[in-house]
Amino acid sequence: MATDYYSVLGVGRDASQDQIKKAFRRLARELHPDVNPDPKTQERFKEINAAYEVLSDPQKKQVYDLGGDPLSQTGGAGGAGGFGAGFGNFSDIMDAFFGTASQRGPRSRTRRGQDAMIRLDVELSEAAFGTTKDIQVDTAVVCTTCSGEGAAPGTSAQTCDMCRGRGEVSQVTRSFLGQVMTSRPCPQCQGFGTVVPTPCPECAGDGRVRSRRTLTVKIPAGVDNGTRIQLAGEGEVGPGGGPAGDLYVEIHELPHSVFQRRGDDLHCTVTIPMTAAALGTKCPLETLDGVEEIDVRPGTQSGQSIPLHGRGVTHLRGNGRGDLIVHVEVQTPSKLEPEQEELLRRLAKLRGEERPQGQFQPGQQGLFSRLKDAFNGR
What we know:
The chain is α+β, with helices and mostly antiparallel strands. The chain is about 25% helix and about 25% strand. It has 9 helices and 15 strands. The strands form 6 sheets. It has a 4-stranded mixed β-sheet with strand order 10-11-15-14. A 3-stranded mixed β-sheet has the order 1-9-8. Strands 2-7 form a two-stranded antiparallel ribbon. Helix 2 runs antiparallel to helix 3. The longest helix is centred in the N-terminal third of the chain and has 17 residues, at about 40-55. The protein is rod-shaped, with a radius of gyration of 36 Å.
């Protein structure tokens, strides 16, 4: 084999499952990416995970010791040719005919934990520029009383006396083929091959307990609703003190009182009186970068927009930022004082707008024109 899994974990070929497990845990604590972020160390961490996956599984370990490939579908010798060709091996044939399921050795009590996900609320400015936040998570961690073994202090797991450590029991039945031997998981040890006579009082034999932890999350600039940040190895610790899953932090951006986000651009609306729109004005606006003056030019119409380039949200992937688009809304007064009304009438007279005819654009037909077109079938 190209890789010596025993050397990777630093144990001998006659090492017990308990020795293999302890060696893996010791190395995992030293080489975990959160403890040592060196890329070479991360590759080493992957190697010990692969070695433990094989050596902690009795079936894969047996295939590996015989010189086969424990990670292939066919295993070692006997994977092709002969009576088992097309089915893998004899037990697969029995599964196909009789629906039985052989465990092919005891199951490992140590398994990888599940991934977990929490939602984190962030302000618009935090999403735009990035930040760090402390979060509290309730996840399963290794039981400190039994160190993940599941047995009470001073005790240990014992070989199951029903299956004698095989994790399965066999039964001989008669069929049209003659006597057929089928296997099923041992009902006494549930297929583990060992039993825990005195479970740990802290974790009830599971090897893990729930605990609240505080983690610091780095939020990159430009995140949006639904963005997920992966924290490797910060999820649930597996049964038997197995490797932890990953924790995913899903970003939820809180609504802003002024700005509406569309992609990396920000939009807002400023309402000005018609006199300011006609004469022009400057409006102060509190942006994400501080107060800026919005230059409203004379003659600005309602619905026009004023762009402020580079005042939006930072691009998550790439350089630069989006834009801030200010939409102008011109407000027409609904009530006028007599003096104000007189001034407007004088202005209308000076501009020749006392009786405006209005300007219709193509496609904006009156009611009678639309009815006429409808009757004519246009």
